Amino acid sequence: MSMLQRQRQGSASVLYDIPGPRTRTRYRLFGVLALLGIAGLLWYAVSALADNGQFDADLWDPFQYNFVQQMIVDGLLSTLKAFGLAGAFSLALGALLASGTLSDHGPVRWVCTAIVQFFRAMPLLILIVALYYAFFAKDPMWALVLGLTLYNGSVQAEIIRSGVNAVPRGQGEAAYALGMRKTQVMSTILVPQAVRSMLPSMIGQLVVTLKDTSLGYIITYNELLFMGKKIASQPMNAAGFPYIPVVLVIAPIYIALCLLLTALARWIEARGRRGANRRTSAAA
Amino acid sequence: MGFLFEQDNFALFRDGFLQTIELSALSALLALLLGTLLAAFRVSPVPVLRAFGTTWVTLFRNTPLTLLFFAVTFGLPPLGVHFSHLTFAVLALGGYTASFVCEVIRSGINTVPLGQAEAARSLGMNFFQTLSLVILPQATRTVLGPMSSVFIALPRNSAIAGAFSVGELYSAQQTFSERGYSIFSIFFWVACAYLLISATVASLFRFLESRLAVAR
């Protein structure tokens, strides 16, 4: 049981006793002080923004125009397109590289391990920019997608590999004892179990992929953040550059998308655990 | 490959390299301090602080780092906050990494056996004593592994700062590209520099792990 669950249930936590009346009063005092402190910080931030005129209607005016709204939707669609392509390709590349690093043939294993280690150690931005200048100067989307695929594919390969290694040894040995080939053992016994246990981590890496599509901003790919910059750098009226409004509009979109994916991972994890429990209870 | 040793290219590359290290080190320091504080918030008995820690982590972990750099670089100057580009980058990168550090420390705290904290409390220690004298020293050991991946990722993420006017390795790469040198040789040298940094951080953590290892 995790500590948070324990706290939610109101029973004793690992770190502190169940509070008595005086401690409860003290905690309440701390709570009020902390609340005042946080409220003060928030108030300071909001009033600094307001004093600066960041909440003036004029500055938010651009968002009323249809073409600006269309730009945001287009940016979101480009982000999702790059994410979809990079996510699918990176899973495919990850599976390929993972089977390479688990291969029985030395040279295949060495080459795949070297590829995985190299791309994991490389800053994604450097990779994407190099691809952009070298091959895709006219089409930044493919530089972004290819860079994301190489980096995230390597990470996915490591996740899948550690998942396969974490399957109990008896599973593979039993399959070999039944006379299965290595390919059969892998594809029918080890990989299905590995994917099941590793799915949350794989989706976690997809969240990273989604966040990293914003690197497209730097190579002028028309994704959400780049569109935001476009909107912010062309003031429509005398109110000035709406950089802060743009951030306040775009950040929640990214956060919502990531939280959706994370929720999916949690749901799958919960489902997997339920299934595993059912199986063990049936076996016992 | 030899272009690095022509004209003043090496000086530019060296400055970029040092700037990357400076930026990474400062951000790592900020992330470590802020992350530990946030982790303490997240396990504290005061619900308001717990909520604050959770909100921070949710917001910063799910925001793209590029967007954070964008917000800090373009959002703060209009509010009258004028720091150097390096300071802005440290704020963005440190705040972002702090949320990951917080989660690593929190999961480390959860792995310390229950009896340890119970023993500490039965000796009459309060929350802060339990945390600082008993739980955190033990959590540090289990945390080193996941922490090393956070701090290996940090210098790699710092490359984004180069796109926001910090003169580090990425901007050195940009300048070399503009001077018309071959992309591949530029990429080779920049890749070497980053591999060197990651390898150094990784071996530092391996050293710490071997130093701190105890039989339990």
Automatic annotation (TrEMBL), chain A:
- Name the domain of life this protein comes from: Bacteria
Q: What Pfam families does its record include? A: BPD_transp_1
Entries under InterPro entries matching the protein: AA_ABC_transptr_permease_3TM, ArtM/GltK/GlnP/TcyL/YhdX-like, MetI-like, MetI-like_sf
Q: How is this protein positioned relative to the membrane?
A: Multi-pass membrane protein
Annotated GO molecular function terms are: transmembrane transporter activity
- Keyword set for this entry? Cell membrane, Membrane, Transmembrane, Transmembrane helix, Transport
Q: Name one GO cellular component term.
A: ATP-binding cassette (ABC) transporter complex
Parts of the chain that traverse the membrane: 29-50, 80-98, 110-135, 243-268
Indicate whether Zinc appears among the record's keywords: no
Matching entries from CDD domains are given as: TM_PBP2
Q: Where does it localize? A: Cell membrane
Q: Which SUPFAM superfamilies match?
A: MetI-like
* Chief localization: membrane
The Gene Ontology biological process annotation of the record reads:
amino acid transport
Q: Read off the NCBIfam families from this record.
A: HEQRo_perm_3TM
Q: Which family does it belong to?
A: Belongs to the binding-protein-dependent transport system permease family.
Its recorded name reads Amino acid ABC transporter permease
Phylogenetic classification of the source organism: Bacteria, Bacillati, Actinomycetota, Actinomycetes, Kitasatosporales
TrEMBL record, chain B:
Q: What is its main location?
A: membrane
Domain of life, per the record? Bacteria
Name the keywords, alphabetized. Answer: Amino-acid transport, Cell membrane, Membrane, Transmembrane, Transmembrane helix, Transport
Give the location in the cell.
Cell membrane
What membrane topology does the annotation report for this chain?
Answer: Multi-pass membrane protein
Please give the biological process terms from Gene Ontology that the record holds. amino acid transport
Q: Where does the ABC transmembrane type-1 domain lie?
A: 17-205
Q: Which GO terms describe its molecular function?
A: transmembrane transporter activity
Residue ranges annotated as transmembrane are 20-41, 186-208
Q: What cellular-component terms does GO give this entry?
A: ATP-binding cassette (ABC) transporter complex
PANTHER family in the record, alphabetically? AMINO-ACID ABC TRANSPORTER PERMEASE PROTEIN YHDX-RELATED (PTHR30614:SF37), MEMBRANE COMPONENT OF AMINO ACID ABC TRANSPORTER (PTHR30614)
The family line of this record is: Belongs to the binding-protein-dependent transport system permease family. HisMQ subfamily.
Q: What is this protein called?
A: Amino acid ABC transporter permease
Q: Which organism is it from?
A: Kitasatospora aureofaciens
